[in-house]
Amino acid sequence: MSEPVNRPVGRRTFVLGTAAAAGTAALAGPLASSASAASFGYSDDGSNYVVDTGAGLVFKVSKTNGDLTSLVYKGTEYQGYGGKNSHIESGLGTSTVTLKQSGSTILISVAYGTLLHYYAARSGENNVYLWTNKADDSVSATRYIVRVKAGMFLNDEPDSYTYAPTTIEASDVFEKSDGQTRSKHYSKLRVMDYDYIGWSTGSVGLYVVRSNHEKASGGPFYRSLLRHQSADGGGLYEILYYGENQTEAQRFGLQGPYVIAFTDGGAPSSSLYHANLTTSWADSLGISGYVAASGRGKVAGVGITGRNTALPYTVGLANSAAQYWGSARSSDGYFSVPGVLPGTYALTVFKGELAVYSSSVTVTAGGTTTLNTIAIPSSNDPSNASAIWRIGDWNGSPSGFKNADLMTYAHPSDSRAASWTGNVVIGSGTETSAFPCYLWKDVNSGIIVYFKLTAAQAAAAHTLRLGVTTAYANGRPQVVVNDTWTSAVPSPPSQPSTRSLTVGSYRGNNNTFTYSVPASAWLTDTGAYNTLKIYVASGSGSTSFLSAGTSIDAIDLLA
């Protein structure tokens, strides 16, 4: 017997989804049957427009401010907690809200100053399609939050703090009694890693299917909060610009659609995923800034040479108006980026998350820009440089370093984290896994790397390189060799000014620090260990894990 849809299910949850889950999808998208859509239509209850999709979903939109005030699926209300509705950012003020039906589509338009927002319903579908057109920064962020009543989808995931009452940082990072940490920031995923977010009881699923993020900022590797759950209720987010750990200025214009989707417990239909979704039915609705498929172009590359085939490669397109990306095929580097707005873009090839090639490409409406094989120069990949020793790989992320994976969904103080201190010996075989992914001035500054040199190596000057992926409070590395040679304090590179390392994100601006170490700094005894001490320099930050810090990409001593 199926479980009542409003019964909490202890720790059962479908967290974040990719196309791989499509095989279990309940019918919930444009391919859904409209046979049961006899009641499709709308009404006006005086305060709200009430839309019935004819397939089990009835939702309301406030005629005053454009809030989504009700989400009733098969007779159960899911929307709202703490007296708050679902809406853009923290809600809009008095707005102009209008409704228009065009055959099997109902469109609700919300105008608030220069911001325009849209809700669309299709006959026979348990979905709400949303677009947001932000023209300027009169609204501080671009975030839609679906607020969900308490008790509908209980869980104890990293982004939940239902079971974590102790606050350990700001007002949004919490600790459980067992020392595990929870925060809405701990999503684990980069934006390129997921198609939808949400929950399921097994009999009802509620999801937000993300848009293509063409007007978002931060590129394919950006990390942000996606969802949260607390004793008060839950939230599902579409984050387009949040202002936290941002590496780019925000983009303006129409973004969407992103979709609120109900299912009978399975994943949302893959036909709703941004890579598959077609919205020709919206072409004539009059959505401001809307560009149909015919007005977009495509970039395709026949291949990429000079790759490290052990790592994934991503091709990104970006200008001040839009951003896109696509994965390069592992066998030959072929890539395709469709649905691109016309314009000239910076094209960047990323090895992992490290930029190793850049050029420019122009896209025209209705056309395909085909690129010949891209050859990555050997000198563009720092891994190709001959090194006496190397810790980690140059891939633009701290992957492989101690605690690196955990830090995308936990606070550094989490009980599951290995000790942030401890020195490293070159030749031990555990150089990377023993080296902490993050360094802080007040936690583990001064970590030591031990290594030996041959007589020939000790007789020459060498370049030491230290790559970072982001920094907090201007933290940057200063090094000391054998307690006799000390580098200058490098200037801080451009990095986001907000929290990063403690809220699940190492993604900032990749930067390489180089130090020219003279031959006089090395020990001449080939049997003795040289020491490299790495300190974090900065007068900013506070204490502990909020002291100045940085995330490590790779460290090497060149031959």
What does it look like?
It is a single chain. This protein has three domains: 16-282, Beta-galactosidase, Chain A, domain 5 (Distorted Sandwich), CATH 2.70.98; 293-378, Sandwich (Immunoglobulin-like), CATH 2.60.40.1120; 382-558, Jelly Rolls. It is mostly beta strands and 559 residues long. The radius of gyration is 26 Å and the shape is globular. It starts with 15 loop residues before the first strand and ends with a strand. Mean pLDDT is 93; it is low at 1-16 and 18-37. It is built from two helices and 39 strands. The protein has an eight-stranded antiparallel sheet with strand order 1-16-17-20-11-10-9-8, with no helix packed on it. A five-stranded antiparallel sheet has the order 2-3-4-5-6, with no helix packed on it. Strands 30, 32, 34, 37 and 39 form a five-stranded antiparallel sheet that branches. Residues 40-289 form the Rhamnogalacturonase B N-terminal domain. It is found in: Secreted. This is rhamnogalacturonan endolyase. Belongs to the polysaccharide lyase 4 family. It comes from Streptomyces coacervatus.
Summarize the structure.
InterPro entries: Carb-bd-like_fold (IPR013784), Gal_mutarotase_sf_dom (IPR011013), Galactose-bd-like_sf (IPR008979), GH-type_carb-bd (IPR014718), RG-lyase_II (IPR029413), RG-lyase_III (IPR029411), Rhamnogalacturonase_B (IPR016590), RhgB_N (IPR015364). The chain is mostly beta strands. The chain has 2 helices and 39 strands.
Q: Total helix count?
A: 2
Stretches with pLDDT under 50, minimum 5 residues:
1-16, 18-37
Count structural domains: 3
Cα Rg: 26 Å
Shape: globular
InterPro entries: Carb-bd-like_fold, Gal_mutarotase_sf_dom, Galactose-bd-like_sf, GH-type_carb-bd, RG-lyase_II, RG-lyase_III, Rhamnogalacturonase_B, RhgB_N
Family: Belongs to the polysaccharide lyase 4 family.
Subcellular location: Secreted
Keywords: Cell wall biogenesis/degradation, Disulfide bond, Lyase, Secreted, Signal
